[in-house]
Amino acid sequence: MVNRLELENKIIPYKMLLEAITTTHELIERILPEQGIPSLKYGLKYLTDALQDQIDKAGEGLPVIGHHFSFQTEYLYAFDCVPICIEAVSYLMAALLPEGSEPYYDLITHWGHPFHTCSSQKGTMGMTLDGLFQFDAIVTPTAPCDNTYASYPYFQYKEGIPLITPDLPFLKEEKSYDYYAKQIQLSLNDLGKIIKQEPNYEKLKNHIEIENRIYKTQMDIFELKKAIPCPVENMFNAMAAAASIFLSGRPEKEYFYDDMLALAQKRYKNKEHHGGEERIRSIWPYMIIFFDLAISEWLDRELGMSILFDIFNYNFADPIDTSNLETMFYGMAKKSMEAPMVKQSAEFYYPFIDECVRLAKEFSADCFIFTSHIGCKQFGSIPQILREALRDEVGIPMLLIDVDVGDARFASDKVIREKIKIFAQTLL
Amino acid sequence: MSLQNDKFLNISDTISNSYLETTQKKVMGYYCTYIPEELFHAAKLFPYRIRSTGNKDTDLADIYMVRFTCSYVRSTLHLALQGVYDFLDGFVVCNSCDHSRRMFELFDLKVFNRESFTKKVPRFYLALPHIITEEGFGWYKKEVEEFKEELEKSYNINEITNRDLIDSINVYNENRRLLREIHNLRILDNPKISGSEALQISMANSSVPKEIANKELERILQILKDSEGIKTSNKRILLVGSIVDNINFTQLVESSGAIIVSDFLCFGTRNFQDDVKITSENNPLEDITKRLYYRMSCPRMMDDHERRLEFLKNEIKRANIDGVLLQRINNCDLHGCDNMLYEHELKDLDIPVFNIDRESFQADTTRLQTRIEAFLEMIT
Asked: Number of structural domains, chain A?
């Protein structure tokens, strides 16, 4: 008979994360002053609750479902299951563990995974190869990039895990939303057959409605970021990215955003900046550095540089109409196609350039910082075009940094900070 | 007679050729073989597969593409920015991979928008699903139908008729039959043709009108049938992976003690194994799309690895292969990961296999040669 511990051990990295978060949170609670990095404080508190809950559910024997970040976590709450986001685990480990996910990148690279493929998947692949994850099934859309099409078959062909691949088409238009809505529904049916559960659409609806409510708070916070100084600290971006996965469709996400909105409103009223003085307002149109979360705080306090938002914090989809199944699946498809990276990948890059120019103007940005991540080939042809557009249409510069956002060995925190520091000097 | 310095094979050495220079037809450039070439032919267009043969620089393209991108695509963009592809009268891109699909925007903004370039070049984009399902086929069928209408509109074609399409299918099926016949002479115990020559034929074939190509392939086939074949004790290699559009690489392999008797490349077997099966005179476009969609895939189709592996296993037997050389152009995630799986799967079957990365143009030659020679020596 399988005991609870064995079942919990299907998701060992979650236990590692929980331990890391608990320790970090304890340090924050005990050492930092009351006003110190509140987003980290709130974020880690709610993450702890969510991780513990998932470990408990794994212990109860619920099926463990891996999923791509662009197959929204809340969609999997149509089932009683433990959803594990392949990409988020790699990068939360990179953020919180002393060695990050590097041992697991090395494991899978040694097995033959190309060095230039995305570390967000590499980490969890390595953990699975090492027996730390035992997935019952994995779901990934055919998006947003080559890394997905290339890396996920490993789970199927090497590990023998059933892989469900809803096909997400190119170009965001009506026919695409209809097509993808059917793909999501078919995929949930297929998943149900594998884990021997009927999808519970009423339950799914409840979780989607939580997300719908959060949308308004997200937009309120986003709007407040237009203020000078920005009333939202840089660390919020990282915590919001984690919340968008680990807390997705859960009440803890609502609490997190409510706490952050209250804080931002207070700072806005008092014209307060988390770092003391805001000197530079930056937009990171792509990702922040996950292996060095401390950079957020360093930018706030040392350089007075606000990160107004990164890619996980400006791509918002409209709330989903849950009035019937047809509208709900249509809305789910649309939301998926508006997800960070999928949105930019499922269309030509002209709208992305236009959006960046618009955001730069609306949010009074002084500069852009583009992290050119080694895995992201779909963005590999964009930086120069974007740089030209920002220069010509807004008159602001863009710094391009070659990185692996989840692996410090490609470009270290020291190298990255030095580049930003020199760039910042040209702006002041 | 031999194929050395053959006029048809020589076409593969350069981007332009005499047919391109003298044709009255509009030239339609494309990257990936997942596009409906028969449709272009039926529209009286001249389909031309974009390559970077002979080019050694990517400087101009490096301005617009980061260094983590594919050197083959960067190389083609470099040539295009130099004006080498100014002969194009149309340009079609499909979402085959992240590197080539962004050529739509870069050609649009930077190549066709150059001050010195005044020609209006229609651009098209085809969205192909990444899995093989009935629903996916329905999607792609619609996509190709809409594409046909766009072509008619853009080139003022009254109508591309079913008769036109059937005639073009016949020309293309004949072309693929001839390539398969040549391939059958390549896998013989004494191969009638080297891997480098086979690659040259394939590249030339994609650079001239198909009627011309068919005549040339008939001629070459006769030469090969009459030849004695290559008597060699070199190791028989199956070459697999990323696009190879330059014989420098195949020559390097073949000069290291191997003969490439078969391949699994898009300038190779992957492009001529499957014919269009005409199921009805009423809907040849659907038949064209069926072939395209259900054909032997490349790793962009994420749910079809098993079928690709099965092909390799069959080809290893059929062509009496001594070893499999897996290669990828650096930064190619698709072939890199597919090769990763093949490497383990073939090793499990005790098939000698070697997995390397390379640049599109010839670079790092000595290191590559040493590694390939070492692999060949290990094959017993």
From this structure: 1
